[in-house]
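Need the bound structure for acetoacetyl-coenzyme A, inputs here:
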Amino acid sequence: MEFINVTPDYKPHIALVQLNRPKELNALNLQLMQELKEALKSLDQDETVRVIVITGNERAFAAGADIKQMADKSAIDMLKIDQFSTWDQIKKTRKPMIAAVSGFALGGGCELAMTCDMIIASETAQFGQPEIKIGVMPGAGGTQRLTKAIGKARSMEMVLTGKFINADEALQYGLINKVVPVELYLSEAMHLATEIAKMSPVAAMLAKESVNRSFETHLDEGLHFERKNFYLAFASEDQSEGMQAFIEKRNPDYKGK
Ligand code: CAA
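Answer from helper R.:
Posting the output first, comments after.
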């Protein structure tokens, strides 16, 4: 891996993926995205991993797709390169993913953070979809996920002017979970990951899938989907362990089975 660092056992049951193109503010070139896709696929299959944290560095989570790599491409080049199939695969990650964001999360960087399930930000974080300033528009979910997260008026303003919002605004708009001082953003993300890693990984996977389904369906179908996953949770050993532990007034010991 040239552009990302992967630590599957950063903490018990928690993997850390760090984007590592610091000079280019972690601009997401095709190779980085390919590496990220492969890493997430492998971590998703790794039984020891329960939660995945994705981060950048203090200055940048990621400043977007690599503009220099795209600048001379034609529409047909872009169609053939088919970069978004990589993003589609990343979206399929079944384990909970937390973005630990400091500095710039712009364009594809903001879209990558939004592809994660939760976002912890440092107080220096800035979120934006500035593609309009370079003559294009968001292409990796920015118009869809941002609008679902913060609503039409704010999303239109960000997408049509390219303006950035700071971490406090992002929190107030409901885009992110928490803002902390810059020296704490990774440890805060790890704290959240640790809380989730204590839960049944089977239940977490089913719950994540069900929450995400709410964005893609109407209420009755979503409730039906939720119910199926609720019943499926009863096929796990973790269900009997969790309920038995409650009755015996002890902490559960989940095995992910
Ligand atoms: N692609 C390629 N290189 C980038 C980049 C990007 N998205 N963002 C920053 N860089 C590079 C700069 O070119 C610069 O490289 P050099 O030193 O070789 O010149 C280096 O990173 C540092 O950047 P700056 O000197 O510009 O740093 P700054 O602090 O003055 O500005 C910034 C920071 C405001 C983030 C500015 O770099 C910027 O505006 N970047 C582009 C942001 C953007 O438009 N992102 C959207 C990309 S399109 C997209 O993402 C499409 C999609 O939806 C998938």
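Comments: The chain has two domains: 4-197, 201-248. The longest helix spans residues 30-45.
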